Amino acid sequence: MKFDLDSAQRRQLGYQLVDCIDEYFAGLSDRPVQPALEERTFDEKDGELPECGTDASRVLRDLCTELIDRGFHIPSANYLGLMNPTPVYVAILAEMLVAALNPQLASRARSPIPSSLERQTIRWISNRVGCTGESGATFTTGGNEANFTALALALSRHFPTWIKAASASMPSRPALYASSEAHHSLEKCVGLLGLGRESLRRIPVTERIETDPEELERSIRHDRDAGLRPFCVVATAGTTNSGAIDNLGAIAGICKRHNLWFHVDGAYGAAVLFSNQHRSLLNNIELADSITLDPHKWLAMPLAAGVVLTSHPEELLRIFDVETPYLSRANTHGPMDNFRIGAQWSRRMNSLKLWLAFKVHGRQAYEQLINRQIKLAGDFAEWVRNSEEFELAAPQVLPTINLRTKLPGAPEEVVRQANELLLREVTRDGKRWMSSTVVRGISAIRLTIISYLTGERHIEELQAALTRVARQQNAKAAVSSF
Ligand SMILES: Cc1ncc(COP(=O)(O)O)c(C=O)c1O
């Protein structure tokens, strides 16, 4: 089959796929997340590279059948796992349009309308932050790249010659700070930035799973006395484990006192910016020097879309601006070319899906989504507090809940085993998915309500399953200790 399909073929294949996706979406409220435990065996694909093609319609049909019938379904309403959502449908359409038009956003000249739509999307986000004064931002592939960019900005701000001369130009070894619960992308970032993973100081958290401000300040003073050069603090707005939000005002104050860059990793929780009702959870985020936000998490975008915002746009230029003979510098007025303010050269339009979702559904749709999910999680936490079988392992703030088996006086290892057993049994039939974790040193079952399809019915079914399995376990334990 040749590449340039005719109109009839394009339509036939396109409609076939749209029909398949439509049927898939129609069943998402009740779709099991994956096959039952006993059926989860997957062979490696070992066929050779096809020399000649096969009928497109058949290949597409077989592919959809296999992916859907035997797949792991993050878009299901019963996926209560890590921070991946059911994608908003119009965002899927935007992805198709982006693939078809294939805009290259490196330069404005070659993408005047896409670049302008992207800047508008960024402006909408910045306005919700409440940035006063100049700000800059760049779309990224996700939170890792956004955090990487933010730490590079922080380094460049404190060590202006670093981007040219690397560590040789640094008067003393840099150090930066984040809580023990901050995301592991930070280790990767500091390693790849050449700082060494030891430069990242992990600060203990309080009972609310927030960075302990006293410990933070003590650590900064200690490092400074030891001849190191503290340059940045990363606060988390919505930790991956528990959805905890650091005390942004306290950390902003510490950064100001010690002249440190204040980065907020809001990959998950900064979505709350779009809820008027809960915006106060992020009070003082506007004081940040940089912010990470991942639309492909709580803003229900398909992978991939991240954003990093900064109140120091000139630093973006300092770290990313390069010369290239095949793009003239003539066009220096107006907004910057994207390749001068971001790590990427070939740059996919990761913003169009969010632009379209905002345009079609409006901010109020996000307000409702966020408020409803926080309420569902609050009710769930209340249910845990009143339960005989479970207790909370961490406070609930966002729609992420850490619960654990209630076994008063039992050693931690016994509770951990009970949690693992419970999780295995509750997810055995494949209907739903949750994960396990360790928070402040204690084991927990972790769930996040992130799909806009998840409602009270799904939560009630989950609670019934948790209770049933926990009671069975307790009964078995009582018999064996008899
Ligand atoms: C708080 C936080 N920061 C950063 C990241 C990394 O984001 P991404 O997976 O988009 O690279 C995550 C991912 O879960 C996260 O929860």
Q: What are the main properties of this structure?
A:
four-stranded antiparallel sheet, 482 residues, Aspartate Aminotransferase, domain 2, binds pyridoxal-5'-phosphate, alpha/beta, seven-stranded mixed sheet
List the helices and strands and how they pair.
Layout: H1 7-26, H2 56-70, H3 89-101, H4 112-129, E1 136-140, H5 143-158, H6 162-165, E2 174-179, H7 185-192, E3 200-203, H8 213-225, E4 229-236, H9 248-258, E5 261-266, E6 290-293, E7 306-310, H10 313-320, H11 352-361, H12 363-385, E8 390-392, E9 400-405, H13 412-427, E10 435-439, E11 442-448, H14 456-480
Parallel strand pairs: 2-3, 2-4, 4-5, 5-6
Antiparallel strand pairs: 1-7, 6-7, 8-9, 9-11, 10-11
Helix pairs in contact: 1-2, 3-11, 5-7, 5-10, 8-9, 13-14
Bound molecules: pyridoxal-5'-phosphate.
What can you tell me about this protein's structure?
This protein is α/β, with parallel strands linked by helices and 482 residues long. It has a domain at 99-361: Type I PLP-dependent aspartate aminotransferase-like (Major domain) (Aspartate Aminotransferase, domain 2), CATH 3.40.640. The protein is 41% helix and 12% strand. The protein has helices spanning 7-26, 56-70, 89-101, 112-129, 143-158, 162-165, 185-192, 213-225, 248-258, 313-320, 352-361, 363-385, 412-427, 456-480, and strands at 136-140, 174-179, 200-203, 229-236, 261-266, 290-293, 306-310, 390-392, 400-405, 435-439, 442-448. The chain has a seven-stranded mixed beta sheet, sandwiched between helices. A four-stranded antiparallel beta sheet has the order 8-9-11-10. The longest helix has 25 residues, at 456-480. The chain is globular. It starts with 6 loop residues before the first helix and ends with a helix. The chain binds pyridoxal-5'-phosphate (PLP).
